[in-house]
Structures are given as structure tokens and as C-alpha cells.
Amino acid sequence: MTAPITIPGEDQIRGVMLASVSTDSIEDSLDVLYTQGSVIIGLVMIFLTIVAVFAADRVVRPLHQIAATIENVSAGYSDDVLHVDTFTETKSISEAINKMMGRLKLLDDSREEFVSNVSHELKTPMTSMKVLADSLLEQENLPVEMYQEFMGDIAKEIDRENKIITDLLSLVKMDKKGQTLNIESININELLEQILKRLKPIAEKKNVEIVMESFRPVTAEIDETKLSLAISNLVENAVKYNHDNGWVHVSLNADHKFFYVKVEDSGIGIPKEDQAHVFERFFRVDKSHSREIGGTGLGLAIARNAVIAHRGAIKVYSEEGEGTTFTVRIPLIYTAS
User: Fold this and answer.
1) Structural domains for the chain
2) Entry pTM
3) How far is CA 261 from the centre of its chain?
4) What class of enzyme is it (predicted)?
5) Per-residue confidence band for 81, with pLDDT thresholds at 50, 70 and 90
6) What is the 3-state secondary structure (H, E, C) of 275-297?
């Protein structure tokens, strides 16, 4: 550092003062700082890397557990409940997966039960026909009357088998997602009259009186085939599970948005504990009586599927020994989803 030397009162510079300080110590300090700083930075980087790996492992580990559970599900449903409560997000994901697994297990159990029921129902008529046919083959010189009786029984079993297969096909078609409905504007009063006319011979065999009551003319947008099948099943059940000399009352009403069909009977009724299951496939309140009158256990399941396909609702009310009432509510104007 330099500074000029002057005499007060004169402008002339008499000399220059030079002051200097050694920078060796500063350079040494900088060298030490650079060396130690690099070491410190390296240690910090290593520490941060270890922390990052640990944090990443902690974050990824729950995802690995979830992935392993999903793999187990794909290999075969696992009964283990997934508990990954490490983070709020993984807890929500594990709860959602548990719900999905529960739903899949329920569907799988339902499928197995359905296949078992179908196998049993299809096998029963075949077994009966085999027994009847073997009896005919084993006996010689059978009277014509007995031969005719056996053949009549075989014909009944064939009809029963055909009805089961027909009902199963109807149910499978209705179960398909995105099923197409042939929607038309139909006169519901005339439709009910046609259904009751077709079922009148069945009712006459049991001396069951069918009465229809219409409160007003009703026209609605429906699939005539599917809804006819649903109403037919309800009325046919009301006749079949009725007492001799009983009655079936079918009524039709409507408001500005829906039309309502009510099917009441004076039949044997449904126990309260069974009412929640009547729409399940192959469910029968009285299995021996159902087999005796030719029930397949699919009629109400078909009716429910047809009503739901129309965005409607179906309910059952019953008192054991006093009769049963089914109510159906269908929108007047069909709205596709």
C-alpha cells in the first residue's frame, strides 16, 4: 500500500510512504480451508447419500409389500389382510386393496357356489332319467301302462332339464355388462293382460283365480321381452306356490315418473329369515316342494335382473301362511347409463 508525503502549504510531493504486509499466512489459511472444506463437503455428501438411501428404502418398502400382495392375489386369492400403515397414503392404498380382495373373494365364492348349484341342478334330472331308463331295461314284458308311466316321468325330467337350461341362458344374457335392451314404447295394460292370458291354464289346474286391476292407462319405454319374462315369473310363482282355490291379484298404477306392478297371492308365504335371499340364484324356501312343482330357483333372480336393467326396483313382503306380495317399480321413460 502506498501513500504520498507532502508538506503542509505546498503542493509538491516530497516522497512516498510504502507499507506492506506478508500474505503467506493468508495463503496458508486458504490452503487449509480448501483442503478441509473438500473433506467436509465429501463427508456431508456421503452422509446425505446414506440418509437418502435410508429414506428411499423406507418409502419403497411399503410399496414392495403392496406389490407382493398384489402378486399373491394374481396367483390365487390370499386370505391375509394387508396392513401397511407406514404412511397415510400407503394406509389408504392398503385399505383399498383389502376391500378389492374381499370383493374378489366374495365373487369367487359366489362363482364356485353357482357352478356347484348348476352342476347339481343339471345332474338331478339326468340321474332320474338314468334310473327310469335302467328300470325299463332290466325288466322284461312290462305292461304298457307301466311303460307309459315311466316314459311320462322321463319326459317330465327332460322338460325340467330344458327349463333349467333356458333359465340359465336368460340369466347369463341379463348378467352381461352393457346388455342391449330393445326399448320400445309399450302399452303396459295390454302387456299384463297378455301375460295373464298365457298363465291362465296353469292357474286353472289349481283352481287359482287371477284378477287384474288397472287404475289408469299406462304406456312406458321398456324391453317387452325381458319385462314380460320378469312379470311372468312373478305371477307363475304366485300360482305355483298358492293353495288350491286360492287367488292372485295383479294391479297396475302409475304416477308422473314411474309405473308400479303389484303381484299379491294367498299362497304359503315366505319365512322372514328367507325373504332377504329369495332373489339369489337357486335359492328355494322349500326345496322339496319346489322340486315337486318344477321350480328351478332361478325365476326371481331373472325377474330382479330384468327390473334392474330397466333402472327399476323390486321388493317382497310376505307373511308365512298368509301370502306374498311383490312390488315392481319401473321408470316410464328409460334412461341409458
Assistant:
1) 183-331 (3.30.565.10)
2) 0.58
3) 26
4) transferase
5) low
6) HHHCCCCCCCCCHHHHHHHCCCC
